[in-house]
Amino acid sequence: MGKDQTVLFHSTVFGPIHSRRLGVSLGINLMPNDGKVCSFDCLYCEAGYNAQGKGRAGLPSREDVYLALEGKLKEMKTAGDALDVITFSGNGEPTLHPEFPGIIDDTLKLRNEYYPEAKVSVLTNSTRIFDSEVADALERVDNNILKLDSAIDSTMRLIDRPASKEFTVERVVGALRRFEGTGIIQTMLLRGEHCGHKIDNTTPEEIDALIDAYKKIKPREVMIYSLDRSTPEENLKKVDKRELDHIAARIRAAGIPVTDY
To answer: DSSP of 124-156, one letter per residue?
Structure first.
């Protein structure tokens, strides 16, 4: 089965942290600082399962996010610190925040004022891209990083466990086509077991389906990766770099750029 795991960010703005992939990254958490709110309940989420609850703090207001981010950027600028990227991630799905579009506009304004060379990135599970205001906001950021863990419904449901039964691969792939040439598709590759169900999204059938989906979406690039931290489901296994290299080569052979992983 799994274990009780809670690795939460306890502030709205956190870091900066040094990411091998992104550089010096300042994080923004739009979810509660004492709980988790997400439209997926992924087996591999380092923040743990949704069952831990949403806490009592509630969502930060747009003004709270603005003031926290401005304060941190001022502090870093005064200290002469470098900043490569401002990344929306945290304790759940950032696009669930009702003021997400406005917060994106505020963040771009503050970025332009304090660190104009820095990028703004959003890590999203793609469940809210059907909302035109959310999709418009995602198009305004530098790195719109959208999840697609499997292009086969049964596997996607096993790994990501979406809250909505209406969320299907066919529907999300269709919506992701809006971000042709701009979106970055992020795919977590893993294998293992959950509640007696075998999980493996690295099989030839799975990779073929993903490549077909990538071809339809035509993203700027694809980011494949595997487990790097402990997971709430204990029976998951990391895909090693040699195998990731092989899968990346197959994707590139189909004419789709794959970023470093």
So the answer is: E-STTTTSHHHHHHHHHSSEEEEE---SSHHHH
The predicted-structure confidence for 201-222, as pLDDT tens digits, reads as follows 999 999 999 999 999 999 999 9
Tell me the whole-structure pTM to 2 decimals: 0.93
In the predicted structure, residue 8 carries a pLDDT above the cut 80: no
Phi, psi at residue 199, to the nearest 5°?
-125, 130
CA distances from 103 to 29, 62, 109 (A): 11, 6, 10
Share of the chain above pLDDT 70, in %: 96
Structural contact between residues 31 and 90, judged by C-beta atoms closer than 8 angstroms: yes
- CA geometry: angle at 170 spanning 253 and 96, to 5°? 105
- Can you tell me whether residue 234 is helix, strand or coil? coil
Q: What is the DSSP string of 4-36?
A: -------SSEEEEEEETTTEEEEEEE-S-TTS-
Task: Write out the two tokens for 16.
Answer: 């900066």
- pLDDT at residue number 74: 98
Closest CA to 94 of 107, 103, 85, 106: 103
For residue 230, what pLDDT band results from cuts at 50, 70 and 90? confident
Is residue 47 within 8 A of residue 92, CB to CB? The reply is yes
- What is the mean pLDDT of the segment spanning 55-63? 93
Q: Give the C-alpha separation, 174 to 232, whole Å.
A: 31
